[in-house]
Amino acid sequence: MIRALYSAGTGMTAQQFQLDTISNNLANANTTGFKRSRANFEDLTYQYVLEPGAETDQETRSPSGLYVGLGTRVAGSTRIFTQGDLVPSSNPFDVAIQGEGFFGVEMPDGTMAYTRSGNFALSAEGRLVTTDGYPIAGVAEIPSNALSVSISSNGTVTYLVPGNNTPQEAGQLTAFRFPNAGGLKAIGKNLFVETEQSGSPEEGQFSVEGFGTVQQGFLESSNVSIVEEIVRMISVQKAYEAASKGIITAEEMLTLAIGLKR
Questions:
Q1: What is the pLDDT of residue 48?
Q2: Per-domain residue ranges for the chain?
Q3: Cα 15 to chain centroid, rounded
Q4: Which of 5, 26, 149, 243 is spaced 20 to 30 A from 189 at the CA atom?
């Protein structure tokens, strides 16, 4: 019964983490380019009273043994990089990736971060930047007197200036992808950074070499399905309740056992 108390407790702890993950997904249901996460569980070690195949007498052996598990734990989190819906916007600096790839973001410390969120803006210096003011890799300055800015499907940025009908090129959005995107580390602000598990980024060009295409005037919505997350939340609630019942039942049985000596 003591084992039951601790095993049920691990179940409650694991389901609490699952609820935390679901809550974060739901909180970011309207976050541009957000990718939902999933908690992964694994069973803990087992205590064996009788090993499988152990002799039960001189001529027979136990076919499965006798053992009891000691609960569960959260083994890790998985980021799901499925495509989100593309939503039209009225901002010419909004861009969405249809398919594989990330935008590169130049961080203040000189390192590179990566994002799927394309709600960009034009800084006072004429740079294409994120909502936090971080410059986007591959694009130089756009003059303040530019009449219009166009971003092609391969990420090429052009603009028109007064008195010149020939589009001027300001650079090209650099595309990045990773051998294991699930290994990227989320640092907030819709940004990811490289880790050993993600592998080194492959730099390329949008619309070629297996990279997705860029859609100007669109934003990629979160890939969170509110209905699915609510269903998962109900399942977590019931699993948590069941684990708590295990603790209550074990406590009642212990109370009965203690009361036998009276």
A1: 83
A2: 2-80+224-259, 86-220
A3: 18
A4: 149
Q: Which H/E stretch holds residue 72?
A: strand 72-79
CA distances from 80 to 34, 52, 101, 194 (A): 10, 38, 14, 16
Coil vs helix vs strand at 130: coil
> Around Cβ 181, how many Cβ atoms within 10 Å?
20
- Continuous segment of H or E residues that includes residue 118: none
Q: How far, in whole angstroms, is CA 43 from its chain's centroid?
A: 23
Phi, psi of 104 (to 5 degrees): -95, 140
Cα–Cα distance between 165 and 213 in angstroms, integer? Answer: 26
Contacts of 114-117 spanning 24+ positions with Cβ under 8 A: 114/176, 114/184, 114/191, 114/192, 114/193, 114/194, 114/201, 115/33, 115/190, 115/191, 115/192, 116/33, 116/35, 116/84, 116/190, 116/220, 117/31, 117/32, 117/33, 117/34, 117/190, 117/219, 117/220
The mean pLDDT of 213-230, rounded to a whole number, is 96
Q: Helix (H, G, I), strand (E, B), or coil: what is residue 225?
A: coil
Considering the entire predicted model, what is its pTM? 0.88
